[in-house]
Write a structure and sequence with these properties.
It is built from 10 helices and 12 strands. With 389 residues, the protein is an alpha/beta fold. It starts with 36 loop residues before the first strand and ends in a 7-residue tail after the last helix. Keywords: Aminotransferase, Pyridoxal phosphate, Transferase.
Length: 389
């Protein structure tokens, strides 16, 4: 990327054309290494099915107050009632608060691993066993991540994963059943081919822009304008990923065969290594202008993004996106069932955390440019505004 070009730093990894024909690699990490896995279009579909499979409908599920909201919607739609426990200002689950909130109505514990950083899964496992209830391990943001030598998603009774947040695939979620208890899980049907094709082309076009600079951006814009017209004319239903709400109409959609092919061809260990490298680079260059949420990267962690603490999210987002960096406002809202006044630390997190991309597509050179743009944006945020006299 030339420094004179406008940057293009997508929030998610892009699809390289060679990945469409690359041979499969042996999957050494879950869910690909798991013998009892089922694949879905969305991870939220796996959440819904987990509630039904474990017969939790009619009972209460104890969930973290720091959540996206769509997983809570899936729990509610499946017939269970969410209750919430405390999460601290460093994404630290308060296990003592979890224990205090367990009642005879509690039918399961729900743990989210945030952005690749492991939660206290061993302590939650112990607590679940003491009360004879299952532990649901939500790894939607933590594909490929481990707690030391223990892969996330393998300690709970169920592990739930999202593929398209970490890998350059058009869709994909997974449900892994751990332990000896067997469950009969039907294989869901493949999604509409047109929807998969649309997402795949979009990821290929993003890769074109990533590699091609200004020329790639122009080509991407041209192809997108033509493609949008064709999709509209053909009345193609595109089942969007990354949506904010659970939709019952899509609960039975499975993962496309193309997604599985692309996923199995990925160098998973290489992806983890690249993400860790990029995270360390940002940490080293930003820690003096923005106190890091995590000042280290524990062994085994594959960071989904760099969580940056800011004071004015909207202003920072606008500055970064103007420069071509697709930063994301991370988990801004509570689900309506959760009372924000009961969890002030989570309310503060929702006001202050931005996602800065650090995925495997981004070279050290690009990450250095990202760091400089972020530093300048943070400095601009702190400068007193000039007012007309």
């Amino acid at each position: 990327m030339k420094t004179t070009d406008k940057m293009f730093v997508p929030s998610l990894p892009t699809l390289w054309p060679s990945m469409l024909v690359a041979p499969p690699r042996p999957g050494a990490l879950p869910p690909f290494s798991s013998p009892n896995a089922r694949y879905f279009y969305f991870a939220r579909n796996a959440v819904w099915l987990t509630i039904k499979m474990l017969r939790l409908d009619g009972g209460e599920v104890l969930m973290p107050s720091y959540h996206h909201g769509v997983e809570v919607e899936a729990v509610v739609d499946a017939g269970a009632t969410p209750r919430f426990y405390r999460v601290g200002s460093r994404w630290d689950v308060d296990v003592a608060d979890v224990a205090k909130r367990i009642t005879p109505k509690t039918r399961a514990l729900y743990l989210i691993h945030y952005a690749g950083f492991p939660g206290p899964v061993a302590a939650m496992r112990k607590l679940a066993d003491e009360h004879g209830i299952p532990l649901i391990e939500d790894c939607a943001l933590s594909l490929l991540s481990s707690d030391g030598a223990t892969p996330l998603g393998t300690t709970g009774d169920v592990g739930i994963f999202c593929l398209y947040k970490t890998l350059p695939v058009p869709n994909g979620g997974a449900l892994v059943v751990n332990g000896k208890r067997p469950y009969s899980l039907p294989e869901p049907p493949a999604p509409p081919l047109a929807s998969t094709f649309s997402h795949t082309v979009s990821a290929l076009l993003q890769n074109m822009e990533l590699r091609g600079g200004a020329v790639g951006r122009s080509l991407r814009g041209l192809v997108r304008s033509v493609g949008h017209g064709a999709v509209k004319a053909a009345s193609v239903e595109r089942v969007a990923t990354g949506t904010q709400h659970f939709d019952r109409r899509h609960v039975d959609l499975g993962m496309s065969p193309l997604t599985k092919r692309i996923a199995l061809a990925q160098d998973l260990e290489g992806i983890v290594e690249a993400r860790r490298r990029n995270y360390f680079l940002l940490l080293g260059r930003l820690r003096d202008v923005s106190p890091p949420l995590f000042n280290q990267l524990p062994a085994g962690v594959s960071p989904l993004f760099y969580p940056m603490v800011v004071q004015d999210k909207e202003a920072l987002l606008a500055r970064l996106r103007e420069k071509g960096i697709d930063a994301i406002d991370f988990w801004k809202r509570f689900h309506p069932a959760c009372d924000p006044s009961e969890f002030p630390e989570v309310a503060q997190l929702r006001r202050t955390i931005l996602e800065i991309p650090c995925h495997q597509d981004l070279s050290p050179e690009v990450m250095g440019q990202v760091a400089e743009v972020v530093r300048e944006a943070l400095k601009s945020e702190r400068r007193p505004s000039k007012r007309a006299s």
